[in-house]
């Protein structure tokens, strides 16, 4: 349990492994996840390391698996995930895995290529079928009918053709190219139109028409018809809408130009016979080939599906195995080879308490590899700051993440996370206090906790949901604490619960109550029973619309200051634990003591005045201790700091709340002022004196410099990130740093105390928003009667519920969460928490697999 309050003690160890046993030993350490390896080859290029070929082979296997995964997802085939993590395969098994993946990839690529070729052939036949159908309609139409439906881009050519027909006085219905045609002995006997037919994407058709018109100067005749059903693109499987077109022209020059335009627009041209009999014969042949292709395509898809289903059963396990192999070889690349090339040497950070567990894992790896040489794990001495490792479970993990988001704790520094488990949801609840809203939040958190195994197995990529699920225990505790403060405020959806019965009673008759908007109940009369409501606020305040906010403002403002001052004092006390642990005597004497005194004599005294005022002044007391003579605490505090004499709150009232108050206040302010120069100059002066004394003693003997002896000032702390080292700092830098720290603390004590008033402000805003939603939304439905009123109430309630959850629970909850986070990061942790460490990142298969196999290299 001690590691919860401070990070684990770490040790830097040197590991010697026989080359044959290195793979199995690293595999066992990866399953354990308690060792962070250091790179012993920082200057060696990644492509020049010993196991670079094995890493490349793993990359190639991963590529093939990703290809298989993409194809499986494309077909919508479910992949079997047992949740189990298979052991890392032996190196000799890599060959079998590579052969399996190579076979699957080649087979799948061959099937895909065949399927694509078949689909392309099927598309061509389908387009040809539509061309034969649509062009048959074109050829069957009479010449005048064709001319009436021509495009505006081709009108000149059609007019010339009409004029020819008129000059020849041919009234018969001639086919467009018809076999009967124009008689040879008539004028215009050499007039014969050529044509091309094809298919083009529908979205390119307008531009295609314009280009034909401009390039051919209107000397072509274009007819087009849409293909109603979309066609599948064999390359990417997209559905494409296309149109059939036929272009009539005269002469080879126009034919060449038309074909080039078709090629530029990626239109597909198909042969189309002139004779109707030939077209019908070709259409029958196309239909037969389409039926045969459908059969072959179905068989191809079935074979592809069987291959993918078989691969889907093992794909997850294959991914895990390949990623483990890759991680092992990547880790082995961090090791050094000894001169004999038979032993691998590694350096690693390990938790001190887990050394025996690590040695057992190394022994298992050696036995599994069949090696007879046991591994050697030696602890090394170092002055380097170790990584910070805080053991967490599924409950404390989210709270630790909140702390680490501010900054990873320095090595062996006090960890705020265990205290945050209580203070965070409590301060949140002070701002969010409502029994109903807290119950909604607590139930949501409880649902995620109860269903956590199933929800965790879904592994969604939705970031918002992952944040909610990761903080499920925080949400649950925030909801429970909000229910508690809601009972204290006696507030549930802006209404109150009368559990114990009000301790106030009306002494007015019914007519007085109905005819007067404002009535007053005095606690000095029989209106008040003389004893407070057993738990929380008296429900009578719910009907006190005129002074309810005034009363709650005074109450919530004072408790905000009380909680804030206690929270900050607790933070300063935490710094005492850091100073004593790191044996930092100077910081203990010249930082902790004056900081605590400054906070206590000013702001804790302010809190004491609140309790004294609550205890000594009451409406039932005799004069001058009545409520009318109660002095303002704010004015008293301001006068105290300015050394001014306070004024009596009323005639014949006492100026002070207790005897000797003026004397104590003067002493307290003088103590606070005296603490400032101690914080500012005490520590730098002591460091300067220690360096000067050390120079006088050591200089005649060894000629040591200031930098070599300056460390004596701190009394020799242990290695770690929590201690302060001034060995390399110049005195001017120390003075500047201490000045900044002192100014920040003195001014911060005032601003941080005022910052805790956000507890009061957000609590008031939350209560008022809840009351507005009730009075302006839900009360409208409650005032309606009859069956129409029931329907109206249902609609209004649904609207009110959506606004309550969306605004008061989600948005207000997020706002209160962020304000609580700021109070912990700035007001609380700034008193003791440095956050200059770096996180312990062990070699762990679970982490690697969870992150998708992204193994990062530390250069």
TrEMBL record:
Gene Ontology terms, MF aspect: ATPase binding; proton-transporting ATPase activity, rotational mechanism
One GO CC annotation: plasma membrane
Region of interest called Disordered, as start-end residue ranges on this chain: 705-726
Membrane topology annotation: Multi-pass membrane protein
BP terms from Gene Ontology: vacuolar acidification
UniProt-annotated location(s): Membrane
InterPro entries on file: V-ATPase_116kDa_su, V-type_ATPase_116kDa_su_euka
Keyword field contains Chloroplast: no
Keyword vocabulary terms for this entry: Coiled coil, Hydrogen ion transport, Ion transport, Membrane, Transmembrane, Transmembrane helix, Transport
Biased composition (Gly residues): 712-721
Positions of transmembrane segments: 421-449, 469-489, 559-577, 592-612, 624-643, 663-682, 759-781, 787-811
Keyword presence, Transmembrane helix: yes
Coiled coil: 51-128
Summary of the function given for this chain in its UniProt record: Essential component of the vacuolar proton pump (V-ATPase), a multimeric enzyme that catalyzes the translocation of protons across the membranes. Required for assembly and activity of the V-ATPase.
Record PANTHER family: V-TYPE PROTON ATPASE SUBUNIT A, VACUOLAR PROTON ATPASES
Family of the protein in this entry: Belongs to the V-ATPase 116 kDa subunit family.
Official protein name in the record: V-type proton ATPase subunit a
Classification lineage: Eukaryota, Metazoa, Ecdysozoa, Arthropoda, Hexapoda
